[in-house]
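Exercise: predict the fold of this chain.
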Amino acid sequence: MPTKFRRAPRKPPDPRDHQTLHAEELRAPHLLLMALEGRAPWEYAAMLAATPWLRRLPRGDGHPVLVFPGLGANDFTTGPLRRFLDELGYTTHPWGQGFNFGPRNGVLQRSHADVRALFAKHARPVSLIGWSLGGLYARELAKELPDHVRCVITLGTPFTGHPRATNAWRFFELVSGQTVNDPELIAQLRQDPPVPTTSIWSRTDGIVSWRCSVVTPAPQAENIEVHASHVGMGMNPLALYAIADRLAQPPGQWKPFEPHGGRRWFYRGGHPAD
């Protein structure tokens, strides 16, 4: 594994490099949306209030789930999500590498080794959940180790569009020592993993432009739109419900997310129009 995201596209690079992308794909969330990130504590409170409902979700089958935090975050931030999944019966694992300051020396090698070790220990594929930048790790690892990965779920992850359509790109360059202006790498990140992949995102994300998180629907790729902030997405009851629903699917029987009854009012899927 390289010391940063691999720059070796399996398909010809997308001709829409950072100089030709549509203007909307280069636009980061505006100040009002950034201010709305302050609702994250309310999302945590909503999670606590929804606990009785969330506990009634389908029980997990015990398979391993590896959770990656976002840029500048650590395993503490994914604690509520992992506890929720543990209570449902999954075997969750933190990424265990401290603060996520980008794919610096040793980060991807360690993550690669962790997936292989969990696969060997549990004798079954590992589900990967990544929040924001952590979702890029999950997607790239699934491309490298498709036989070891059961599914990928990302939360507000910017894998399409352009990295500058976020309010975190300068911080990423500062702490990672890497540039976001790499057309070949951008094309690589856009490619979907060869495993069931779910992108959970919000139009009111104040850090990442929602257009950067929209996957083109395919037989094994889907979008789930929720009403959430970026920093609160991993605690948002709607996101937690969707994650549990996706993880509960038996291996080899993946189907797109279909909320039933009144739940249909809270979710949107497919490929949204602007």
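Check your answer against the key: Residues 7-21 have pLDDT under 50 and may be disordered.
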